[in-house]
Design goal:
The protein contains 15 helices and four strands. It starts with a helix and ends with a helix. The chain is 64% helix and 4% strand. It is mainly alpha-helical. The C terminus is likely disordered. Among the domains are: 137 residues, Tetratricopeptide repeat domain (Serine Threonine Protein Phosphatase 5, Tetratricopeptide repeat, Alpha Horseshoe); 98 residues, no CATH class. The longest helix has 28 residues.
Length: 357
């Protein structure tokens, strides 16, 4: 607690050490934000700073207008320019705050679309790793991740301009962020919304690739459920139907092939388990299943070699004995849907001689 208090005092001290205060209209105000000219003159100075990209000067006049002339139309527009100024100064949290206030001031703000565009850019910065101030206080360091704010801003953009190109970009950015947060279901739904709403947009094609990526990640990080592979194949077919001849379909095909290697690898590992435990019939079932379901994989070559080494021919009409069909203790799944931990067997390919022992 003592360390926290010291940190707070250190961060807040610039507010008091370097600031001079005066009383105006019964309120204690920093002399730097006290109006020294008419509202029209301050607004003119603000616009001059905007034209000359003098962002700190723009912010100073904007604050003066908002604090001293809150009931004038100049105050409403000053909020927009404060958002622009803080954005250019890379204080995205304050920029978003001012833009939100501006958009709420009236039903049809003069700079409505420009404000939404800046909000989108803020969401992109937050997704890229830009941080918020601690406790939302300007004088505090920017250490706090802002991914939740990015998701909220993306939703604002999608709602405000539902059929605009910016909405497609916001949907795509939102889906990418959801993937980073391991929100797989929501990520796929967002990509699918983009595809439905903007079927011929270039980002719709990218969304098909994104969906394939999600299924691949799920296969790598979770139990490789056959449903993931089936859905990935459906996704690839739709991609090719909607974007015939699209060169980027090769990326989706590559991810699908990688998934097949993962699934074949799990079957292979299980076959090796049964082979080591002297259950050749069960091992034979797994190796032949790889050849039937994933014949175009590298793992299929390994399975073929293991079958040659095994040299097992099951009696006609005989199924695996009950004791052979018992899966390893790590899983309670049925024999041919067994969950086995391990990486893709491609890593074993350089040492195939060992696999044939």
């Amino acid at each position: 607690m003592k360390k926290l208090n010291i940190l707070l005092l250190t961060c807040l001290s610039p507010l008091f050490v370097n600031a001079a205060y005066t009383i105006k209209d019964g309120k204690l105000m920093n002399t730097e934000i006290v109006a020294t000219m008419s509202v029209q003159e301050h607004y003119s100075a603000l616009m001059s700073a905007y034209q000359n990209e003098q962002w700190e000067e723009l912010v100073r006049h904007g604050v003066i207008i908002v604090k001293n002339f809150p009931s004038t139309p100049f105050s409403e527009e000053a909020l927009f320019f404060l958002g622009v100024g803080h954005f250019q100064l890379q204080d995205y949290e304050l920029a978003n705050r001012h833009l939100t206030r501006y958009l709420k001031m009236q039903a049809t703000p003069k700079y409505f679309e420009e404000a939404i565009q800046y909000k989108f850019r803020i969401a992109e910065r937050f997704q890229g790793g830009a941080k918020k101030h601690i406790f939302g206080i300007k004088s505090m360091p920017k250490w706090v991740p802002a991914r939740e704010e990015a998701l909220a801003i993306y939703d604002e953009v999608i709602t405000a301009l539902p059929h605009h190109d910016l909405a497609a970009q916001a949907l795509f950015g939102k889906a990418q962020l959801l993937l980073k947060e391991d929100e797989y279901k929501a990520c796929i739904e967002t990509y699918q919304t983009l595809i439905r709403r903007f079927p011929k947009h270039p980002l719709a094609g990218e969304s098909y690739i994104g969906i394939g990526q999600v299924y691949l990640v799920q296969s790598q990080e979770q139990y490789p459920d056959q449903d993931f592979l089936d859905l990935a194949e459906i996704n690839l077919r739709k991609f090719k139907m909607d974007f015939p001849g699209e060169e980027k379909a090769a990326a989706a095909e590559k991810m699908l092939q990688e998934m097949k290697e993962i699934y074949a690898s799990n079957l292979y590992d299980t076959g090796r388990f049964y082979e080591r435990t002297k259950k050749p019939h069960a091992a034979f079932i797994y190796y032949t299943r790889i050849l039937a379901k994933y014949p175009d994989t590298n793992v299929a070559d390994l399975a073929n070699k293991r079958l040659s080494k095994l040299n097992y021919k099951p009696p006609q009409g005989q199924s695996a004995p009950a004791e052979q069909a018992t899966p390893p203790a790590s899983s309670s799944s049925p024999l041919l849907n067994l969950q086995v931990q391990g990486q893709v067997v491609q890593n074993e390919l350089p040492s195939q001689n060992e696999a044939l022992k």
